[in-house]
Amino acid sequence: AEYMGARILSTFVQQPSVTRKMSRSSCSIAFALFALLICDTNAFSSSDYDHSHTVNSDIKLHWNIVGSGDSQEIQLGIEYKTTTGWMGFGVSEANSGSMPGSDIMVAYVTDGELVLEDRYSFAYDTPELDPCENNWKAGTYTRSGSKTIIEVSRKLAVEDTQHDRPIQNDGNPTRLIFAYGSSSKFGYHGTRHATASINLFDPDVDLLDSLSDDTVLELRQNNYEIPTAETTYDESLCHLFAEGELPDDAVMTGISMYVTPGNEAYIHHIVVSGLWDSDCDGDSINIWVTASHDPFVLPSDVGFDLSQFKGISVEIHYNNPEHDSGVIDTSGIDVYYSATARTHKAAILQFGDPNVQLVGQSIPEGLSSYTFSCPASSTNQWSGDLTVFASFLHMHKSGTKMLTKQFRNGKLIRTSNEVEYYDFAMQRTTEFEPFISFKKGDSFKTTCFYRNEDGTRTFGLGSENEMCIDFVYYYPAQEVTSGYLCGYQIGGGDLDDSQSDLDDSALEYSFGTTDTSYCDQLGDGNGDGNGDGNGDSAVSLVGSLSLFAAVVVALMF
Length: 557
Description:
Structural class: mainly beta
Distance between the termini: 14 Å
Strand content: 35-45%
Number of strands: 34
Helix content: under 10%
């Protein structure tokens, strides 16, 4: 009775200000109190959720978003392929998607109770307990067959931005992580983990649907055998336009990556370039770079001018650290284009070290940083201001943090893009909403931090080497060099500063502090209203409600 009573009461006691969407009403309202003893009305049902997403064969996510304003919540039903282990769910940094920098909830069942722990991570290590507050609410759990289903909820907005990640409706997908263990004791997950990139607010929208009237050019590798070398940059995929193949005003409106099923781990990123001449090895200019499988659709009035090119070449970066042999690849891209010219012509501007001029230079052991400049004298060559709608920050395996800062008349205007917890395997293009403006005469500094553990890293093209490039998508396209390349020894830029033997304070993280005094600044960190930093990081479903259920039963009889 205590268990079932706690389960039904959790709907009303733990969520007083939010209308729960669950339609479990097998017991009448008139007998709601008696139902504490005889009805389990909170049994999991996927039909009670508006949205579902299969993460992989072991994990499935269901969710609702309810309420409004500061009280808006997300309600989750998560299925895990375990009947004995702990279960984890996390919200990652938007520009990373990795475990470091994530806000993490850990759930486990003990003595018939669903217990939730609020944790956070700043490394590939055991996540720390949130010292300030637990903003998760326990719902039900169900164990049957080979799986466990937990139902939990939390507010979208957060007060503690050092240990909690907000879930934002900004048009971009939310980066999520999942894991579970083989026992109820929280520990290393091994291979039982997964990631997902989901637009939680509008998951059913296919970005490519808006391009349904456009022509699609499919480019695929021709049964290419991936080399056994760790790093391969293959440039064999190329398409030269036949006479009359493209309309006179053809513009690229979107692009998506196709990856051969089973080869996901080998495809690190691709670079798509427009060819100036009818030569696959000739001069070209980058028009798309990606390391994620998410499609990229340009704004409705913006397009890359395809009519100026003689063809398209695709460079695929293959990553094969295990030196596997016999892997055949047919991956490639789908290029969407329209015969109708768009208002604005797009281009890509590269900051940092675009041509990898530092190739061969050693990176100091430990934590170091390199800052590259694009001066006002270079941007003054632009014909006018630029509208920036996306950016792709790119380093390799020892990259730790990367950012680009924008200055005007010597004063910092904004950090145009930043990833605090960089992960080579989790790169993505950041789409800006609203768009941002780069004005003629502005200057820029792009900084890359590297953590070189063994002192053997150098700059270069391979995955084992390093790069520092910010690919900025903008319009209108500029004709001058500094409209495409503005960094080290190109477009007037330079290496502005380099530092070595840094400690972690140089990273200036905005997420992940271990200083518990931070909690004192919060108004009601642990629910007692004093913000003393002693919040309970674990909450259970039954413990907080069993006494209340007993009192109700006593009043009934």
